[in-house]
Amino acid sequence: NPFICTCALREFAALTKNQATQTPGVTLGHWPEGYQCSYPESRSNTMLKDFYLPEISCDGWILAVTILIPTITLVVAINLLCHRLDVPWYLKMMWKWTRAKHHAITSQKKTEDMEGLRFHAFISYSQKNADWVKAQFLPKLEGDCGLRVCYHERDFIPGKTIVQNILRCIEHSGRCVFVLSSHFVQSEWCHY
Questions:
Q1: pLDDT for residue 7
Q2: Quick one: pLDDT at residue 108?
Q3: What is the block-wise mean pLDDT of the chain (192 residues), using blocks of 10 residues?
């Protein structure tokens, strides 16, 4: 008798094995040669006594749990690492930088073309160089050169985070100016 060896046959196969080996007085005719699997193709001509399917492949709940628990654990771990290592922020900055580079290459704007921009430049510097920037650098750029410069004490929007303000100011500026100093290189914001 050919059998369809799927999950539905697991209990019957276990029952026949137990009866054939443990129950005295019960005889299965032509056991085991007369009991073979005909389907699926991978189990064709396998003896029913050798047929075995693990519980996990037949029980949907066990299969779901064994897939979902590691998946959920992995997703939570990745989210925690991303949050801990500021990965979303870095991805956002990479996206903004790529967009800015693409925009700069494709548009090739002239310095006098300020359509859509509020500032000619955004200045980034260490707080330890603030006195020099405020006393000498800003007056030179804004007064002598006639440029509109984004200065954080004047142009940041209160209530927004520093990162949001920086991104907004960079988007509304034609250029970014970094005042490089030993203090700037050691600052946390320089690394961002």
A1: 80
A2: 61
A3: 77 67 63 76 76 79 90 92 82 86 70 71 88 90 87 87 86 87 81 68
Cα angle: 128, vertex 100, 82; to 5 degrees = 70
For 48, residues 6+ apart whose C-beta sits below 8 A from its C-beta are: 3, 5, 13, 16, 32, 35, 36, 37
Sign of CA dihedral 178, 122, 86, 130: positive
Read off the pTM.
0.41
Does residue 9 contact residue 51 with C-beta atoms inside 8 Å?
Answer: yes
Coil vs helix vs strand at 94? helix
Spatial separation of the C-alpha atoms in residues 170 and 192, rounded to whole Å: 14
From CA 133, how far away is CA 138, in angstroms rounded?
6
- DSSP H or E segment with residue 168: helix 162-171
Q: Which domains does the chain have, with CATH numbers?
A: 3-57 (no CATH), 121-190 (3.40.50.10140)
Three-state secondary structure along 29-78? CCCCCCCEEEECHHHCCCEHHHCCCCHHHHCHHHHHHHHHHHHHHHHHHH
> HSE (CB half, 13 Å, CA atoms) of 45?
0
The answer to whether residues 49 and 17 touch, using CB atoms and an 8 Å cutoff, is: yes
